[in-house]
Amino acid sequence: MANQLFSTRTLSTQTSSSLFTLTVAPAKVIRGSDVLEAATAEIARLGSRPLIVAGKHTFTTFQQSLQTILEGQQLHIAQADYGVDCCEASLKSLKKTAKEHKADVIIGIGGGKAMDTAKLVAHQLQLPVVTIPTSAATCAAWTALSNVYSETGAFLYDVALSRCPDLLILDYELIKTAPQSTLVAGIGDAIAKWYEASVSSGHLQQTLIIAAVQQARVLRDILLQKSAAALKAPGSEVWQEVVDATVLLAGVIGGLGGAQCRTVAAHAVHNGLTHIAKHGSIHGEKVAYGILVQLRLEEMIQGNQLAAASRQQLLKFYAEIGLPQKLGDLGLGNITLSELQTAAEIALAPNSDIHRLPFKVALEQLMAAMVSTTAPTDCRDTTSRVLTRGISDEVEE
Ligand SMILES: [Zn+2]
């Protein structure tokens, strides 16, 4: 096991230690409708001077109710806006605020960026952290990982944290206030687990890896079966099950699978796109598109018929629930060839997870895949056709 860890250590900061450590799950998860008030007693067990980290929008929406609830527990709260993103400038200023307040627990409330910022501040200050997601757009409330972005939203690197959050409070009433598109994005991010974990785990026979990959398959099937019904009935039982799938089960898979169940091309493509897309679309939307790119690569380069069939299945599913199928759906219909190339080059950087694919990917192949995610399956000369015509056709649509 140590050897395998070493062999992948250049790919990510998560494997930078030679010790085999797993950060499987939050110490406690409280889940239900209107549970926030009851759950604050658990927060009080972790500390009495919380610093609340959230985005502006979250503060405007929840400040009143949150403040009342927390002060009811005799907690001395301070709050701070994470600013534009989980970026180094925000982290620095939040650590300063935390020290000034003598914070003894950090509470992250909001979407993925608020979670990532709160977790990383807590990690760096060695304080306990509570995550309270207000959308189901990612599993960031669960995981021991934070993504750091530039101030303009470009993905820079991820940081492996020493543990999962000390407390996760999943209150369906909060999740219900988020726009529907955030759950759609969460479905995209969660379903990627199967397409990426099944590739990155290769033929590993380790018990926990096999278990994680099987959970990813279960997660995919739950999402394929229940997402459409869930989106039609926010707050319903089936909706809660899909929220559990995106916020909780997706986190379980990352926790159980650890370093060998990591992201592959779908997230690498997402990372590349953040350098040209800025804030036009959210994480799970880009990842969902990235899955199609990954399958397209497997199809074009390996001649993988299963990947071809999966892509067609996902295209139908995406159409049904409103996930993006192509660059145009991400607001990138008018990008130039050089922007496309920039995104592809970043996705192919030497330390990128795209290199977990079992074959080499050339720049032109990736660019071709990125503009042909909706292509019909496939006659033999697709690659050359796309290379000579496809880029200009699709990019200018
Ligand atoms: Zn993700």
UniProtKB/TrEMBL annotation:
**Which InterPro entries does the annotation name?**
ADH_Fe/GldA, ADH_Fe_CS, Glycerol_DH
Record carries keyword Nucleus: no
The residues listed in the UniProt record as binding NAD(+), with positions renumbered to this chain, are G112, K113, A114, M115, D116, T143, L145, Y149
Q: Does the keyword Transmembrane helix apply?
A: no
For the ligand (glycerol), the binding residues are: D189, H267, H283
Q: Which cofactor does it need?
A: Zn(2+)
For molecular function, the Gene Ontology terms on record are: metal ion binding; oxidoreductase activity, acting on CH-OH group of donors
Q: Which residues form the Alcohol dehydrogenase iron-type/glycerol dehydrogenase GldA domain?
A: 26-171
PROSITE patterns the record matches: ADH_IRON_1 (PS00913)
Query: Which keywords accompany this UniProt record?
Result: Metal-binding, NAD, Oxidoreductase, Zinc
Q: How is the cofactor bound?
A: Binds 1 zinc ion per subunit.
Q: Which residues form a coiled coil?
A: none
What highest taxon heads this organism's lineage? Bacteria
The Swiss-Prot or TrEMBL record describes its family as follows: Belongs to the iron-containing alcohol dehydrogenase family.
For this entry, the protein name equals: Iron-containing alcohol dehydrogenase family protein
Supply the source organism for this entry.
Answer: Atlanticothrix silvestris CENA357
